[in-house]
Target: enoyl-CoA hydratase
Amino acid sequence: MVAPGTAKKLLEARGMVLGPQEGGRKFTHWRYSRDESGVVWLLLDREGESTNTLSEAVLTELDAVLDDVHGLQARGLVIRSAKAGGFIAGADIRDFRGVDEAGEVEARMRRAHDIVDKLSALPIPTIAVVHGHCLGGGLELALACRHRIALEGASFGLPEVLLGLHPGLGGTFRLPALIGPLEAMGMMLTGRSVHARKARKLGLVDAVVEERHVEAAVRAAVEGKIKRSRPRLGVAVFNLAPARRMAAKRMRAQAQEKAPQQHYPAPHRLIDLWEKHGGDARAMQRAEIRSFSTLLCGETAQNLMRVFFLREGLKRLGRGESGIERVHVIGAGTMGGDIAAWCAARGLSVSLTDLDPKAVARAVGRASAFFDKRLHGSLERRDALDRLMPDFSGDGVGSADLVIEAVAEKAEVKRKVFESVAPRMKPGAILATNTSSIPLEILRQAVPFPERFVGLHFFNPVTRMELVEIVAHDGASDETLEQARAFCGAIGRLPAPVVSAPGFLVNRALTPYLVEAFTLFDEGVPKEVIDRAARAFGMPMGPIELADRVGLDICLEVALMLRERLGNTMPEVPDWLVKKVEAGETGRKAGRGLYIYDERGKPRSEEVKVAEGGAAARSEAEIADRLVLPMLNMLVRCLREGVVADAEIADAAMVFATGFAPFRGGPLHYARTRGVDAIVNDLRALQERHGERFAPDAGWEALKG
Model:
């Protein structure tokens, strides 16, 4: 029997226009055939892979195909993916993982460029027909074609910067020549994708069509009836060095703010390349190859590639069919409302209930704004809103495959909800709690079917944070846990399996980091200095600002619970934090916490100068160690206690839930790189100065293996 998801993909593939299916020639990854009008249809269907990527083997075969095309007297060449999921998702970075010799990479890249240049030089119309994702090397291959035809829903991007690289297969000179340097540099420096309609406006694609019109569009391109995108205004201006210098200066300032050069060299290297060689494609090509090869062998790129594979590992855990089509969410606050909106956006039918009807109305309003921003077509937005049903009476619980509780973080409140909804749930449905820290052994006492009870801990903001902790307890069935992981995969989230324990994994490791920041603040270190030190280490925001964003009330509740359960391995909670929460100064949501917030939710802060020798005069490195080493120590303890199965899941969870400095490859990878013995010695030194909370855990020795 074919699984439902597999059947859907097969039907999608059958509906694709792929040219003649008989005759021609078949390689391992490519196949081609010539239609009656003399057009060659070249299809990429990478063997043994669910997604097309460009490997050395794929490019070597393409080289042979291009030799064949010369002898076929073809009127045109169409390049398409035969996979329903998309065109090409970029280069296969498995080819480069662990490579440390730039000369070797450079030789391989020159060979790849020769092949793409051969495609670009063909004297016949070449047409890339793109559906789904067209990223990285896939877009660079499409850029070497004379025409690009996009199907509705296609997306285009050069996300190499997210791997510590810049485009390496011609994108640095072909994209600026096509859409203009400023637009092209914006795409390459941010790694952001553009959808088909925006790509058409930019001139990146020549037409946007539906599948049934692909053959007609191809015929028009071959016959010269599709207008080829012309270079955008500004290309000539930026061929002049003074214009590039002025623009590059502005780009560097923006890049430094988002991606400091000492941590992320790739954007800055790309700006240097464009400033020096923009307008000279040959010089840019040579410089691109050299720069790409050097970056690839650097620590940042290797660590970011490690993070990429950590993501792939979690995605594999979310494979399979969950059987979940209807979701009922209880609690329409920020978390519950956003969980409901995300599930609806991803194609599930969702009912949302709350004791306060106004909360449901506000949540639907937020969801509508989110759909307007994130979903591209008006039909998509309408359908998503139709799938999100306000449920003032809570009747949706009876038809849901999955019920998610997202009410206040109090055990007695959650237990009352479970006692109310469990009798009304249909047989076989899963009950999940979004608790961020309460052990499930406490909560399951109110659930008559503990085997179908699980933790689904989303992180705020739900629409941006990819990770979901799948929290197991000793009564949960393997089938329930498997369904929960597959549910995360189906909604585009990364499942991280953890065992029920105080704070689970992420909050348990993050809380010492946050409370140590409170302790430093108590010692007289200005909050701006603390946050600046964390950002200098590589965190996306400082711990003080993060605490305000999470909510000081939530931080307090979790910190008190962990202090009670874990004793002096956790810092003491300062009295002023309790008083702030009692006064309603709970952070950004209240407009005031440790920072004061403006009407846009931005913290008001002044630059702080610290006098030498004062209590607050600490080096950034010293402050960073005070913050980060307790986090590492707690992660090691979680590994030792079996809260998480292995260091890779722990690293992935912290990167994707907290933004832990991705260029360091994950906190435990960073610990190994820095040296386990060195960290243990630093913890002992901090223990002597500041107390038992810095005592090295017994699990460090095992991390050496």
User: Anything to note?
Assistant: DSSP finds 28 helices and 21 strands in the chain.
